[in-house]
Write a structure and sequence with these properties.
The complex is a heterodimer of chains A (114) and B (114). Chain A is 0% helix and 52% strand. Chain A has no helices and 11 strands. In chain A, strand 7 (61-66) and strand 8 (71-76) form a beta hairpin. With 114 residues, chain B is an all-beta fold. The radius of gyration of chain B is 13 Å and the shape is globular. Chain B starts with a strand and ends with a strand. Classes of the chains: A mainly beta (114), B mainly beta (114). Chain A binds chain B through residues 32, 34, 36, 42-46, 49, 88, 90, 92, 97, 99-102, 104-107, and chain B through 31, 33, 42-43, 45, 48, 50, 55-56, 91, 95, 97, 99, 101-108.
């Protein structure tokens, strides 16, 4: 079992729709969860982080965390073609957040159709 | 506008040559990470420093790769001798540490070994 799992996609959504990106992780001790966006040929860019169970909203983005189910998701409302990118889920490794290492998933490719 | 810088941005070299990549972390960040990204393997952590001390280099091929932080403003990743399978994009990232685990990526060095 991979430590951080994501569906590779592509996830295709029409412009204006809600895109839902999902991630599961195996380390129950993980406490910090991150979403990065990576455009083709560019470096990963941090867009959201979440530490507590529940929802965290930032503009059109909402991160959702369920530690009991070891599940984290990213919702993008009113999707735009400019949101088309690979979205990487990352989880800190180490019980109690003892290390600064992040384990990255392989990413989900999102394609927003005009 | 604080950001991680990396040089060179592109490097083409012949097999057997030495390659040195440099990174300047964001001022005040005390954690520095080196990653390698390929289509097949995704984002792999090679080495990780906290307060300039190497904490984890388990992802790095020890026989040919070395990573150092000669001072707080410079991290280096060296490959000697380089091989075609080292062709990848190498990212440096830095983070504030102190219980905050987010990481900010540099633009990357695209390495091609022929």
């Amino acid at each position: 079992q991979k430590e951080v799992e994501q569906n590779s996609g592509p996830l295709s959504v029409p412009e204006g729709a809600i895109a839902s990106l999902n991630c599961t992780y195996s380390d129950r001790g993980s406490q910090s969860f991150f979403w990065y966006r990576q455009y083709s040929g560019k470096s990963p860019e941090l867009i959201m982080f979440i530490y507590s169970n529940g929802d965290k909203e930032d503009g059109r983005f909402t991160a959702q965390l369920n530690k009991a189910s070891q599940y984290v998701s990213l919702l993008i409302r009113d999707s735009q073609p400019s949101d088309s990118a690979t979205y990487l889920c990352a989880v800190n490794q180490g019980y109690g957040g003892a290390t600064n290492k992040l384990i990255f998933g392989t990413g989900t490719l999102l394609a927003v159709q005009p | 506008d604080a950001r991680v810088t990396q040089t060179p941005r592109h490097k083409v070299t012949e097999m057997g040559q030495e390659v040195t990549m440099r990174c300047q972390p964001i001022l005040g960040h005390n954690t520095v990470f080196w990653y390698r990204q390929t289509m097949m393997q995704g984002l792999e952590l090679l080495a990780y420093f906290r307060n300039r001390a190497p904490l984890d280099d388990s992802g790095m091929p020890k026989d040919r790769f070395s990573a150092e932080m000669p001072d707080a403003t410079l991290a280096t990743l060296k490959i000697q001798p380089s091989e075609p399978r080292d062709s990848a994009v190498y990212f440096c990232a830095s983070g504030p540490g102190q219980g905050a685990y987010e990481q900010y990526f540099g633009p990357g060095t695209r390495l091609t070994v022929t």
